[in-house]
Amino acid sequence: MTDTIVETVRTRMPARVVELKGVTKEYPGGVTALRGVGLTVMEGELLGIVGPSGSGKSTLLHIVGTLDRPTAGTVAIAGHDVSKLSDRALSALRSRHIGFVFQSFHLVPGISARDNVAEGLLYSGLPRGERRRRAAEALGRVGLGDRVHHKPHELSGGQKQRVAIARAVVGEPDLLLADEPTGALDTASGEAVMELLHDLNADGATIAVITHDHEIAASLPRQVRIRDGEVVADVWNTGRRPR
Ligand SMILES: Nc1ncnc2c1ncn2[C@@H]1O[C@H](COP(=O)(O)OP(=O)(O)OP(=O)(O)O)[C@@H](O)[C@H]1O
Ligand SMILES: [Mg+2]
Asked: Which CDD domains does its entry note (predicted)?
């Protein structure tokens, strides 16, 4: 009986996907891009990171994504203390838990949309045929089921970004990080990309998205505002914390 209660409590408790404490980042040359940032992201959240140019948003996303290490402070991703991991263990953690989407897509030219998406499973240990099958499935999910054999130069900007999102989520990461995913897109394509992120979130993905666009930011459940390397506001648009 007691065990059942404990189990129920445990399954209801959302996991901390990201936990940053006192994170500072000094770049060589003397720029302090982050100053003592604390940030906790729970499983299933969709949050926006907003702030002026140069305020430290991309630096923060790189640190959350373990692409870079902080100068001081601690970073835990899915419960793993990043500072205790070797570079190799870190890239394993990254490939298993984190998906990235960048403003400029970063697709591999000359290979199909399907093979670009399959790159997201390169370190999964799955055989190539299975990687391709899942890639085609992920493309269907982002509405590009009829473009699997198209190469990046044969796709529109919005379609390229959807391929990049499919690549980021094909491995079912715990966390999807997007740095200005609509920055290079026209309004309609940007809206389609945001709708896709909302859908993925509704299906359970935890997503952090950097945006300059106030309208987009306002459409997200949570906004973390950054200025001069500090979190100056952390706002739930519903007016209350979801959990
Ligand atoms: N590799 C680097 N080496 C030195 N300084 C850097 C480096 N990357 C960023 N910076 C500096 O750190 C600060 C924060 O940069 P960051 O790229 O995080 O800003 P941002 O908020 O993403 O800006 P934007 O909205 O323009 O993309 C800036 O002052 C920038 O010049
Ligand atoms: Mg940036």
From this structure: ABC_MJ0796_LolCDE_FtsE
Dihedral over alpha carbons 74, 80, 82, 83 (to 10 degrees) = 70
Which domains are delineated in the chain? 2-236 (3.40.50.300)
List, for residues 152-180, the tens digit of each pLDDT value. 999 999 999 999 999 999 998 989 999 99
Q: Whose CA is nearest to atom 14 of ligand 1?
A: 56
Note the pLDDT tens digit of each residue in 184-234. 888 888 888 899 999 999 999 999 999 988 889 999 999 999 999 999 999
Question: Which pair of tokens denotes residue 103?
Answer: 């403003």
Per-residue CA distances from 4 to 9, 12, 15, 16, 70 (Å): 9, 12, 19, 23, 41
